[in-house]
From TrEMBL, chain A:
Pfam families xrefs: RNase_PH
Species this protein is from: Myxozyma melibiosi
Keyword Cytoplasm: yes
Highest taxon above the source species: Eukaryota
Protein name: Ribosomal RNA-processing protein 42
InterPro entries: ExoRNase_PH_dom1, Exosome_comp_Rrp42_subfam, PNPase/RNase_PH_dom_sf, Ribosomal_Su5_D2-typ_SF
PANTHER family xref list: EXOSOME COMPLEX COMPONENT RRP42, EXOSOME COMPLEX EXONUCLEASE RIBOSOMAL RNA PROCESSING PROTEIN
Record-stated family: Belongs to the RNase PH family.
Main location: cytoplasm
UniProtKB/TrEMBL annotation, chain B:
Key words of the record: Ribonucleoprotein, Ribosomal protein
InterPro entries (alphabetical): ExoRNase_PH_dom1, ExoRNase_PH_dom2, ExoRNase_PH_dom2_sf, PNPase/RNase_PH_dom_sf, Ribosomal_Su5_D2-typ_SF, RNase_PH
Domain named Exoribonuclease phosphorolytic: residues: 21-161, 164-227
Ribosomal protein in keyword set: yes
Keyword set includes Ribosomal protein: yes
CDD domains, per database record: RNase_PH_RRP41 (cd11370)
Family: Belongs to the RNase PH family.
One GO CC term, this protein: ribosome
Pfam families assigned: RNase_PH, RNase_PH_C
Entry protein name: Ribosomal protein S5 domain 2-type protein
UniProtKB/TrEMBL annotation, chain C:
PANTHER family on file: EXOSOME COMPLEX COMPONENT, EXOSOME COMPLEX COMPONENT MTR3
Region (Disordered): 1-33
UniProt-recorded name of the protein: 3' exoribonuclease family, domain 1-domain-containing protein
Gene3D superfamilies assigned: GHMP Kinase, N-terminal domain
Superkingdom of source: Eukaryota
Keywords: Cytoplasm, Exosome, Nucleus, RNA-binding, rRNA processing
Taxon lineage: Eukaryota, Fungi, Dikarya, Ascomycota, Saccharomycotina
Keyword Isomerase included in the entry's annotation: no
Amino acid sequence: MPLSLSEESYLASSLSLRPPCRPDGRDQHQFRPLDASAGILPATNGSARIRLCDGGECIVGIKAEVVESRKEDVALVEVQCDIAGVQSNSPLHTFLCTTLETALRNTLPASRLSIIHRYTYKLFIDGIILDHVSHPLTLFSMTVYLALLDTRLPKLIPSADVASTTTSTSSSDQPIGLPQFESDWQESVPLCDKAWSPPLVQLAVLAGKNVFVDPTGEEAGVGDGAIVVSWHQGKVVGLRTVNTRDSSKQVFSASRDVTEALTRVVS
Amino acid sequence: MSRPEIYSPEGLRIDGRRWNEVRHVRCAINTHQASSDGSSIIEQGNTKVICNVVGPGEPTGGGVGGSGGNQRAKDDNRVILTVKAVVAPFSTIDRRKRSGNDNRVQEMCLTIQHIFEEAVMGHLQPRSQIEISLYVLSQDGGMLQACINAVSLALVDAGIPMYDYVCACTAGMYDKEVLLDLNRLEENDMPFLTMATLGATRKVALMQLETRVGIDRLEPMMAAAMSGCHHLRDVMDAEVRKHGKSRLARTGV
Amino acid sequence: MSDRRRILVPPTARPLTFAPAPTESSQDSSSSSKTEIYLRTSLFPDASGSAYLEHQKHKILVLVNGPRPQRMSFSSTAKLLVDVKFLPVSSDAHVLGIQQGGGFDTDLEKSLADYIYASLVPAIRLERYPKSGISVSVVVVSGPPRWKGLVKQVTAACVTTAGAALVDAGIEVLDVVTACAVKVSKEGAVSLDLDETSEDSESVDTVARGVISSMASRDEITGVWVDDDTTSESASSRSIEGEALVAVLKAANSGAVEIRKLVNAVLARSLDELLVEKKGKKKITKRSAESMDS
């Protein structure tokens, strides 16, 4: 239910107080409780489900396919999503998918997905957002993060690798150099390890001089503006502003404030 | 490559079942309290479906295939059902993206809508709407039957008056043997039908047969499917009662 | 008997004459770089406002239509619509598209539109136009021969052009929006991403690129978009964070201010032209840009 004007102004002023006061009593940098589980779908390479306390729920399944790496420019990650109650191909879909896709493509080194010289994995990340009350970006990104952590790729049989390089000229019944994999799933190797963990994309709302992470729908509605921050291994790798409200007065403060805000988001 | 043996001479199927055994059924209701009025998850073997029901509420217009507007004008004194299904791209072995208006999915939605319009006591809720959303997370044969069972459970959870559960089950004919509750491999290999009954009665709510089969073979298949439906009704009823008991215990009555 | 088969000219008609071709006087160079930017407004009398910008290989045309009444449900503010189109001839945009599975890279178009929308919306006084719609169509007539790494540059050019076109349409704005792109090299040096060509963009020196939209005279920023451009293999040493980010934002902001000066000059000149046109031969003294600089 939309807020009335007086409710809106009350919320806006309580958010811009110092220290701020959030309607659910949370701290500025506190997330809402959530319920997360990974590995729920055995038919996928990686899967996860996250449920927020407001009913928002997202399920992500990741499938890896073996493709031929023809050029360096082949997109190795594809993100798609389906949002309940929103027409497909809406701006929200594009926003969610391209934001995550950019973050992943910029941080995921191609070597992590390559199998042998000519072949590489391509990750298909598909999400279903069953319900969302607040902006689904944070929810979707967290679920993708969890699913990527859960992702396992079949182990390559090393002999096949050698054979493919040596017998590449001789004709056999199989296509030349097609990679062979261990059929035992216990042997599969995780995509993520200590050296690489997936990026996270978070939405933060600005109100006055305050920054709020994990905003509820109402908070995003009255905020002065919102920023999308992409994270990767403790570093900011992307930053973008979006406006969550179509009103002209929501000009958000000068550059200093943004950076100030960011350093606080970082902490 | 050797083909897997669908039905061995010893009477065992690929997954080790006998001809009259259904796959393991796991169901739960009231799984999404925060986002819907009624919800359920059902797993039949490796087929997994989530169902959310919102309603009965004020009609928002626009049903399956845009037929909502006309229908509302026609059946003003009955409840309007809208069914939406999302088949996840990762639900099959090979990833396959279905577009939003995939014909097969649309047809399934329409089928489910028709079944439940009969099963729900619609005259008790005139000028209102029940929105049913289905999410197919993984498929291993019997998508339609799992969806029907999931909707049935979710409607019960939402407290919508119904004549009885609608339970669905598939049965196939392999050579001269009837097999109950087929998985994907079996489905691809033999003629099969999906049947839905109203509870443990002999009232048939749906019979769908899309493959060619001799008329003399039809009857044993129907009989097997019906007994499968009755079995599923017991499983679903047990789950609903279990859930009801646990809720009652929580309220301390 | 008069000739009825032809439509005769009105009696007041005069022979057609062409105005002298636009001189290069509006070509101005911002002081901090040697890059030349060509900007011109009011090219299309049919549109409410229009602007055309040329910079390096980018040729960008923006048409603004509106405010026009909307039949949709009531809204107390105007609705802004932004759409971006790459023309098929605009460099290798189509190559990019084909690689990603057929057609154009519509995702890139959409995310550009998204950013331009977010940059413009805070500047427009939408509440002055209830029940109406303002549409901004951005046409990328020609882009760099290779897009890799130059998206931010194009974005900045689009925002600047759109800002000028909005003013040309006579839509009430708080301030003119201009944008500037920046890049961060491996050593952490921040430079304006203005005069880079596609050949340079292939170099691995750059670790991050960004674009900032700002309302210069109000010292307010309306949009920020910064991305690390490389995979983690080479970027592990540096990141855009804390002080580095402040430097990026400051540099981009100062770039946007420089571009603003150019836009001001162009807008002032077009205003002069308009006044001259209206008042016939009467010479109007050249307006100083001060009123807009404030």
